[in-house]
Design a protein that fits this description.
The protein is an alpha+beta fold. It is built from twelve helices and 20 strands. Strands 1, 8, 9, 10, 11, 12, 19 and 20 form an eight-stranded antiparallel beta sheet that branches. Among the domains are: 180 residues, Bactericidal permeability-increasing protein, domain 1, CATH 3.15.10; 154 residues, Super Roll (Bactericidal permeability-increasing protein, domain 2). The two termini are 61 Å apart.
């Protein structure tokens, strides 16, 4: 009998193994720079960032210049200026790129403004061209009590990114004044950007982060069931924001909801090699398998074979005659084939392809009044699983069902080798079960985040252990098997 020291050692070895094991999330959402840029651009527009630039209080900023060497220059300049303000402003295309710090993304926001001032020295307005660039950093923040989240911090104008010049030539009399105004704006404009625009940039980022959380948590409909995701941890990899997600499948059984959880696991998860796609949703095989199982629950089908598939009925009768003449003669026009799918199907992924394996029980009743079947067959079947997309929906179609193994489980006629009926029973499954399952799969699975992230259509691919969804142009899918 093993002593206590043995169990202590065993527990220690198991714990060490788990520590060394790489735990992979159930789902990974990768967001590239393009998505972040477009979302942040829209959020800045929603917060009227351009209007805020147009309302920058340049004149007041100069008046509030603190005492010191510049004070006398400010006073001299202000005596000759009636007003100074921004007359037009634009925010050019944002840039989101990897920072020198591996755990940060830098957001660059180029600004282009025209400012004008009025002076009694001339009748026309003196126009200045102001070019600047705000920079902010997307970082990971771990709270004392809350989960790690992404924040935008460190907003300021980029060093060396400020350029101020005269938009048009001015008279010799006004040129010294214009040069002094531009000199005073060099320290004043960065302060205004930091105090007036940076808080808006942070608000805009907080908005898109909250929107991303809603997109991620939106439930995925699987008929009566649904699949939900939640954030385990965010991360920054190069110029990509990565959300490691947990998943749960909610299955309704009458008034009771059963939840199956998928979180970090030692199950493998092959990530796409390149981050070229604007976004990618990588779903681990066990989560995809659970979704397929939810769409194809265990069921029972009963078919009057002679009425529905008369040719197959004749072929089956011929095969049974080779087993028992008496049994073949008892087959009437109301003979019934009963097909029962056992448990749930199992999805098996490989690089670029997949198949669905399922266990099936097939009974043959000679008439609709018979209580005992002639025989019961246990069939291990598999089908090619073809994933494709239609718009923002993930589609699945089963093709080429084959019987990998067939076993005689029960018989009320002569014992026989079940391989005799392999071909005809496979044809029955192809004609009855396959169209029924494809009918259930036909609506597809809505991938709501595709349009929520700004794309019209999705594309999908398979690795050896995951389903990968990326944006793509709309394209028709293959026809469904009948």
């Amino acid at each position: 009998m093993a002593g206590p020291w043995f169990f202590t050692l065993l527990c220690g070895l198991l714990a060490a193994t788990l520590v060394r094991a790489t735990l992979n999330p159930a789902v990974v959402l990768n967001l590239g720079a393009e998505v972040i840029r477009e979302k942040l651009t829209q959020a800045l527009e929603d917060h009227s960032a351009t209007a805020i630039l147009q309302q920058l209080p340049l004149h007041r900023a100069l008046r509030e210049e603190p005492a010191g060497v510049l004070r006398s220059l400010v006073d001299a300049v202000l005596k000759n200026i009636i007003w100074l303000k921004v007359t037009s402003a634009n925010i050019h295309q944002l840039q989101v790129q990897a920072s020198a710090n591996a755990q940060e993304l830098v957001v660059k926001i180029p600004m282009d403004m025209v400012a004008g001032f009025n002076t009694p020295l001339i009748k026309t307005i003196v126009q200045l061209h102001l070019e600047s660039e705000a920079q902010a950093f997307i970082r990971l923040q771990t709270g004392a009590s809350g989960p790690t989240r992404l924040v935008l911090r460190g907003c300021a104008t980029s060093p060396g990114g400020l350029r101020i010049s005269l938009l048009h030539k001015v008279s010799f009399l006004v040129n010294p004044l214009a040069n002094k105004v531009m000199k005073l704006l060099v320290p004043a404009l960065p302060k205004l950007v930091k105090s007036q625009l940076c808080p808006v940039i942070e608000l805009a980022f907080n908005d898109i982060y909250a929107e991303l959380l809603e997109i991620i948590r939106a439930p995925v409909s699987l008929g009566p069931d649904r699949l939900e995701f939640d954030i385990l941890s965010p991360a920054i990899e190069d110029n990509v924001i990565q959300f490691n997600l947990g998943a749960r499948l909610l299955h309704s059984k009458g008034t009771v909801t059963v939840t199956k959880w998928f979180n970090n696991s030692v199950a493998s998860l092959t990530m796409p090699t390149a981050h070229s796609a604007p976004f990618s949703l990588v779903v681990r095989q066990d989560v995809v398998n659970a979704a397929v199982a939810a769409l194809l629950p265990a069921e029972e089908l009963m078919v009057l074979l002679d009425y529905v598939l008369p040719e197959l009925a004749r072929e089956l009768k011929s095969s049974i005659r080779a087993i028992s003449e008496k049994a073949a003669d008892q087959l009437g026009p109301t003979q019934i084939v009963k097909i029962v799918t056992q448990d749930t199907p199992e999805l098996l992924l490989s690089q670029g392809s997949a198949k669905v394996a399922q266990q099936i029980v097939l009974d043959l009743f000679p008439t609709n009044e018979a209580h005992r079947p002639f025989f019961t067959l246990g069939i291990e079947a598999s089908s090619e699983a073809q994933f494709y997309t239609k718009g923002d929906r993930l589609m699945l179609n089963l093709n080429e069902l084959r019987s990998d193994r067939i076993q005689l489980m029960n018989w009320d006629i002569n014992w026989f080798e079940p391989e005799i009926l392999k071909n005809v029973t496979t044809e029955i499954l192809v004609s009855i079960l396959l169209p029924n399952e494809n009918g259930k799969l036909r609506p597809g699975i809505p991938v709501l985040m595709v349009k929520a992230l700004g794309f019209e259509a999705a594309s999908c691919s398979l690795t050896k252990d995951a389903l990968v969804i990326t944006p793509a142009s709309s394209q028709p899918g293959p026809p469904l098997s009948q």
